[in-house]
Specification:
Elements (H helix, E strand, L loop, with lengths): L1 E8 L7 E6 L9 E10 L3 E9 H5 E12 L8 E11 L8 H18 L5 E3 L5 E7 L1 H7 L1
Antiparallel strand pairs: 1-2, 2-3, 3-4, 4-5, 5-6, 6-8, 7-8
Organism: Dendrobium chrysotoxum (Orchid)
Protein name: Bet v I/Major latex protein domain-containing protein
C-alpha cells in the first residue's frame, strides 16, 4: 500500500506534517497525501487533515480520525479500530470518497495480516463515512 512515508516537519505530534507515497496499484486513486496531524492521544486516537495531494484537490476539508477502543472482554488482546472521514466535496460533481474508504480498509487488513490473524470487520459504514476493524492494541499503536 505504501511506497514511502516521511515526516516533513515534526515527529508525529500535533502540527507535524507527513507525506505518504502510495504504491503504483493505488496511483489511479492517490499518488501522494500530505497530512497535518491535528490530534494525538497515544494508543487511542489520531486525527489528521489532508493538506496536499489528490484528495485535497477533490475535498476541502478531508479529515481522518483513527480511534482505538479496547474490547471489554479482551482488553489486553484486542481493540476496535474505527476509521472516520469527514469531507466536503469541492464541487457538486465530486462523488463521496468510496475508493479512499476501501483503500483504508485494505490498508488495515494488510497491516493486521502481517501482525496477527486477519481482523474481523465490524462495520463498513454508518452515519458518517466509517469502518471498524478488530485489531490488537500492540499493532494498532504502530499505526500512530
Amino acid at each position: 500500500m505504501l511506497a514511502g512515508a516521511e515526516y516533513l516537519e515534526g515527529n508525529g505530534d500535533p502540527g507535524s506534517l507527513r507525506l505518504f507515497r502510495l504504491v503504483p496499484a493505488l496511483k489511479d486513486l492517490v499518488k501522494e497525501s500530505k497530512e497535518k496531524i491535528e490530534k494525538v492521544e497515544l494508543g487511542w486516537l489520531v486525527t489528521y487533515e489532508v493538506v496536499g495531494g489528490e484528495l485535497r484537490d477533490l475535498y476541502d476539508p478531508y479529515r481522518v480520525t483513527f480511534t482505538f477502543s479496547s474490547v471489554p472482554e479482551k482488553k489486553e488482546e484486542q481493540c476496535t479500530v474505527a476509521w472516520k472521514a469527514e469531507f466536503e466535496p469541492r464541487s457538486p460533481a465530486v462523488p463521496p470518497p468510496l475508493k479512499a474508504k476501501n483503500a483504508a480498509l485494505s490498508f488495515l487488513k494488510s497491516f493486521e495480516s502481517t501482525a496477527m490473524p486477519p481482523p474481523s470487520i465490524v462495520a463498513l459504514d454508518g452515519p458518517q463515512d466509517q469502518l471498524k476493524v478488530q485489531a490488537s492494541p500492540r499493532s494498532s499503536q504502530s499505526i500512530l
